[in-house]
Design a protein that fits this description.
Strand content: over 45%
Shape: globular
Strand order of the largest sheet: 1-2-3-4-5-6-7-8
Structural class: alpha+beta
Number of helices: 1
Distance between the termini: 81 Å
Order of helices and strands: HEEEEEEEE
Number of strands: 8
Largest sheet: 8 strands, antiparallel, barrel
Helix content: 10-25%
Length: 198
Protein backbone atom coordinates (compact mmCIF):
# COMPACT_ATOMS: atom_id res chain seq x y z
CA UNK A 1 0.00 0.00 0.00
CA UNK A 2 2.84 2.37 0.75
CA UNK A 3 4.40 1.69 -2.63
CA UNK A 4 1.18 2.44 -4.43
CA UNK A 5 0.70 5.65 -2.46
CA UNK A 6 4.21 6.99 -3.24
CA UNK A 7 4.01 6.25 -6.99
CA UNK A 8 0.66 7.93 -7.62
CA UNK A 9 1.84 11.58 -7.31
CA UNK A 10 4.80 10.84 -9.59
CA UNK A 11 2.50 9.42 -12.24
CA UNK A 12 0.24 12.45 -12.02
CA UNK A 13 3.17 14.87 -12.31
CA UNK A 14 4.43 13.00 -15.39
CA UNK A 15 1.01 13.16 -17.00
CA UNK A 16 0.74 16.87 -16.24
CA UNK A 17 4.09 17.50 -17.86
CA UNK A 18 3.07 15.54 -20.96
CA UNK A 19 -0.11 17.58 -21.30
CA UNK A 20 1.53 20.93 -20.48
CA UNK A 21 4.35 20.62 -23.05
CA UNK A 22 2.12 20.22 -26.14
CA UNK A 23 -0.17 22.94 -24.81
CA UNK A 24 2.77 25.35 -24.50
CA UNK A 25 3.93 24.51 -28.02
CA UNK A 26 0.46 25.07 -29.46
CA UNK A 27 0.19 28.38 -27.63
CA UNK A 28 3.57 29.42 -29.05
CA UNK A 29 2.52 28.49 -32.57
CA UNK A 30 -0.67 30.42 -32.10
CA UNK A 31 1.31 33.50 -31.22
CA UNK A 32 3.58 33.10 -34.25
CA UNK A 33 0.80 32.41 -36.75
CA UNK A 34 -0.38 36.04 -37.18
CA UNK A 35 3.19 37.26 -37.82
CA UNK A 36 3.65 34.69 -40.59
CA UNK A 37 0.69 36.13 -42.47
CA UNK A 38 1.45 39.79 -41.78
CA UNK A 39 1.68 42.13 -44.77
CA UNK A 40 5.22 43.23 -45.75
CA UNK A 41 6.31 46.58 -44.35
CA UNK A 42 6.54 49.69 -46.54
CA UNK A 43 4.70 50.78 -49.71
CA UNK A 44 4.62 48.56 -52.76
CA UNK A 45 6.66 49.69 -55.79
CA UNK A 46 4.53 50.89 -58.74
CA UNK A 47 4.13 48.53 -61.69
CA UNK A 48 4.08 49.93 -65.25
CA UNK A 49 1.08 49.55 -67.52
CA UNK A 50 3.42 48.99 -70.49
CA UNK A 51 7.11 48.37 -71.11
CA UNK A 52 8.20 49.02 -74.70
CA UNK A 53 11.29 49.15 -76.89
CA UNK A 54 11.95 52.75 -78.02
CA UNK A 55 12.73 53.33 -81.71
CA UNK A 56 12.53 57.00 -82.71
CA UNK A 57 13.78 59.43 -85.33
CA UNK A 58 13.68 63.22 -85.04
CA UNK A 59 14.72 65.61 -87.81
CA UNK A 60 15.69 69.29 -87.55
CA UNK A 61 14.88 71.72 -90.33
CA UNK A 62 17.18 73.56 -90.74
CA UNK A 63 19.97 71.59 -89.02
CA UNK A 64 20.74 72.78 -85.49
CA UNK A 65 24.16 74.10 -84.49
CA UNK A 66 26.14 77.18 -83.61
CA UNK A 67 24.51 79.23 -86.36
CA UNK A 68 20.97 77.88 -85.96
CA UNK A 69 19.64 77.62 -82.40
CA UNK A 70 15.99 76.73 -83.12
CA UNK A 71 14.38 74.61 -85.82
CA UNK A 72 11.26 72.69 -86.73
CA UNK A 73 11.10 69.07 -85.53
CA UNK A 74 9.48 66.28 -87.50
CA UNK A 75 9.81 62.51 -87.33
CA UNK A 76 8.38 59.62 -85.40
CA UNK A 77 8.47 58.01 -81.96
CA UNK A 78 7.90 54.26 -82.08
CA UNK A 79 7.07 52.02 -79.14
CA UNK A 80 7.60 48.39 -80.16
CA UNK A 81 7.24 44.92 -78.64
CA UNK A 82 5.24 46.24 -75.68
CA UNK A 83 4.21 44.06 -72.74
CA UNK A 84 1.94 44.87 -69.80
CA UNK A 85 3.39 43.94 -66.34
CA UNK A 86 0.36 45.46 -64.57
CA UNK A 87 -2.11 43.70 -66.85
CA UNK A 88 -3.79 47.02 -67.67
CA UNK A 89 -3.34 46.78 -71.46
CA UNK A 90 -1.99 43.42 -72.67
CA UNK A 91 -3.58 44.00 -76.08
CA UNK A 92 -1.35 47.03 -76.81
CA UNK A 93 1.91 45.93 -78.41
CA UNK A 94 2.96 48.58 -80.94
CA UNK A 95 2.43 52.21 -81.90
CA UNK A 96 4.26 54.83 -83.99
CA UNK A 97 3.57 58.49 -83.23
CA UNK A 98 4.18 60.97 -86.03
CA UNK A 99 5.58 64.01 -84.26
CA UNK A 100 5.93 67.74 -84.88
CA UNK A 101 7.42 70.41 -82.68
CA UNK A 102 10.46 72.56 -82.00
CA UNK A 103 14.10 71.65 -81.57
CA UNK A 104 16.62 73.86 -79.78
CA UNK A 105 20.39 73.99 -79.46
CA UNK A 106 22.19 75.34 -76.41
CA UNK A 107 25.96 75.70 -76.40
CA UNK A 108 26.73 76.86 -72.86
CA UNK A 109 28.40 75.27 -70.94
CA UNK A 110 27.91 71.96 -72.79
CA UNK A 111 26.24 71.62 -76.21
CA UNK A 112 22.72 70.32 -75.68
CA UNK A 113 19.80 69.51 -77.93
CA UNK A 114 16.22 69.62 -76.72
CA UNK A 115 12.86 68.88 -78.29
CA UNK A 116 9.24 69.76 -77.54
CA UNK A 117 6.07 68.91 -79.40
CA UNK A 118 3.14 66.58 -79.93
CA UNK A 119 2.52 63.34 -81.75
CA UNK A 120 -0.38 61.24 -82.95
CA UNK A 121 -0.38 57.55 -83.83
CA UNK A 122 -2.39 54.34 -84.15
CA UNK A 123 -1.99 51.34 -81.87
CA UNK A 124 -1.90 47.80 -83.24
CA UNK A 125 -5.52 47.52 -82.07
CA UNK A 126 -6.61 50.36 -84.36
CA UNK A 127 -7.10 52.81 -81.48
CA UNK A 128 -5.71 56.31 -82.05
CA UNK A 129 -3.58 57.93 -79.37
CA UNK A 130 -1.62 61.13 -78.88
CA UNK A 131 1.21 62.34 -76.67
CA UNK A 132 3.15 65.41 -75.56
CA UNK A 133 6.95 65.34 -75.21
CA UNK A 134 9.61 67.74 -73.90
CA UNK A 135 13.23 67.26 -72.84
CA UNK A 136 16.88 66.87 -73.75
CA UNK A 137 18.52 64.38 -76.08
CA UNK A 138 21.56 63.11 -74.18
CA UNK A 139 23.05 59.64 -74.20
CA UNK A 140 22.13 57.59 -71.15
CA UNK A 141 19.74 60.28 -69.93
CA UNK A 142 16.06 59.87 -69.14
CA UNK A 143 13.80 60.12 -72.17
CA UNK A 144 12.12 63.51 -72.62
CA UNK A 145 9.02 63.89 -70.44
CA UNK A 146 6.07 62.35 -72.21
CA UNK A 147 2.39 62.13 -71.36
CA UNK A 148 -0.35 60.19 -73.15
CA UNK A 149 -2.93 62.88 -73.92
CA UNK A 150 -5.65 60.80 -75.58
CA UNK A 151 -6.59 57.26 -76.53
CA UNK A 152 -5.71 54.10 -74.59
CA UNK A 153 -3.83 54.79 -71.34
CA UNK A 154 -4.67 58.51 -71.52
CA UNK A 155 -3.08 60.29 -68.58
CA UNK A 156 -0.20 57.84 -68.25
CA UNK A 157 3.26 59.33 -67.86
CA UNK A 158 6.19 57.84 -69.76
CA UNK A 159 9.78 57.50 -68.63
CA UNK A 160 12.80 55.36 -69.46
CA UNK A 161 16.35 55.53 -70.79
CA UNK A 162 17.50 56.59 -74.25
CA UNK A 163 20.54 56.32 -76.49
CA UNK A 164 20.36 59.16 -79.07
CA UNK A 165 22.74 59.05 -82.04
CA UNK A 166 23.22 62.36 -83.91
CA UNK A 167 23.05 62.58 -87.69
CA UNK A 168 25.31 65.35 -88.93
CA UNK A 169 24.26 67.48 -91.88
CA UNK A 170 25.98 66.52 -95.14
CA UNK A 171 26.45 70.13 -96.23
CA UNK A 172 27.32 71.74 -92.89
CA UNK A 173 29.47 69.36 -90.79
CA UNK A 174 28.81 71.55 -87.72
CA UNK A 175 25.06 71.20 -88.05
CA UNK A 176 23.04 68.30 -86.65
CA UNK A 177 20.25 67.19 -88.98
CA UNK A 178 18.56 65.01 -86.41
CA UNK A 179 18.82 62.03 -84.05
CA UNK A 180 18.11 58.33 -84.16
CA UNK A 181 17.02 57.30 -80.68
CA UNK A 182 16.90 53.83 -79.11
CA UNK A 183 16.12 52.65 -75.60
CA UNK A 184 13.31 51.46 -73.36
CA UNK A 185 10.23 53.25 -72.02
CA UNK A 186 7.52 52.52 -69.46
CA UNK A 187 3.94 53.80 -69.17
CA UNK A 188 2.82 54.57 -65.61
CA UNK A 189 -0.57 55.41 -64.14
CA UNK A 190 0.14 57.83 -61.31
CA UNK A 191 3.50 57.48 -59.57
CA UNK A 192 6.40 56.50 -61.82
CA UNK A 193 8.92 53.85 -60.86
CA UNK A 194 12.26 52.73 -62.30
CA UNK A 195 11.78 51.61 -65.89
CA UNK A 196 15.17 49.87 -65.83
CA UNK A 197 13.73 47.42 -63.27
CA UNK A 198 11.67 45.90 -66.11
Amino acid sequence: MKIATTQQPTTRRTRLRRVALPAALLAGLGLLAPAAHAAPDGPQAPVPDLVCRLDAEVNFSPPLGLLVREAQVTGHIGYRDCRSPSGAAPELTDIVFEVEGTGRFGGVPVPTFSVEGNGIGTWNTGDVGSLYFKGDLKEGSPVPDRTVTSGPLAGDGINGLQIPKPRFDKIDPNGVAGFDVFGQVCFWQGEKGRCTAY
